[in-house]
Amino acid sequence: MDTSSREKFRFFLKDSVRQIVDFRNTDQNKGIAPPPVEKPIPEGAHLIELVPADELHDISDMNVFNAIASRKSRRAFSSEPLTLKELSFLLWATQGIRKIADFGTAFRVVPSAGCRHALETYLCIFNVERIEEGIYRYLPIEHQLLLVSQPAQLSAGISAAALGQDFLGKSAVTFIWTAVPYRMEWRYDIAAHKVIALDAGHVCQNLYTACEAIHAATCAVAAYHQEMMDGLLGVDGDEEFTIYIAPVGKRKMK
Ligand SMILES: Cc1cc2nc3c(=O)[nH]c(=O)nc-3n(C[C@H](O)[C@H](O)[C@H](O)COP(=O)(O)O)c2cc1C
Fold it and tell me: Is the dihedral of CA 170, 209, 94, 231 positive or negative?
């Protein structure tokens, strides 16, 4: 890598960007209304109710010490389906809403820079009880799933889009997080992008911990073909694009 490219990419990790953003000119400070907390729900969408958060308290028999201590990346999944309650727990643990403050601000169980929460959660569902195979989007405000599409050969499609990492198509469900960068740019302009990546880390860490708590398996995945993954989800690759992935399933007994 040439020196200028390396400097450019290292710059991304620094907060030096704050010195070149004129915060008086962000869309927020220009008085532009905040973008919505979640993508809109298309008319006539097929929606699936999840198990509400207040019915999830008994989901785990594991204490937090053991959940953290046992965490590791697990890439093999059993053929046992995930229950709807388990999936509801994993979605709540990664993006669940804790409190809605006002239009444009919703506090979640994970932190986010400026509470902007610029991520959406898509699921490739293969083996979850009572849910057909397909691509779904999580609606954190409603705590529902929205059916996005049911492509043929989804397992092969996601494996190819993950550069041949075929465990993504052998899961019970594969989480795919997209970034909607404008939600963060509205407040932070070009200081938005590093913190979106930091936010994604928190989300996936909560997924790992929640999976341990229910004796499930997961593995963070950041290597994939950008255009193929975005194409699979049907997002435009500009205003919204894939940034992180994690397949989940019941553990395979060794
Ligand atoms: C940001 C990030 C990206 C990763 N990408 C991949 C990936 O594309 N494929 C994969 O098999 N594992 C991936 N992993 C998992 C790591 O390989 C794993 O965390 C590492 O080997 C340490 O193992 P452990 O998680 O069991 O402690 C990723 C992990 C992180 C945090």
Answer: negative
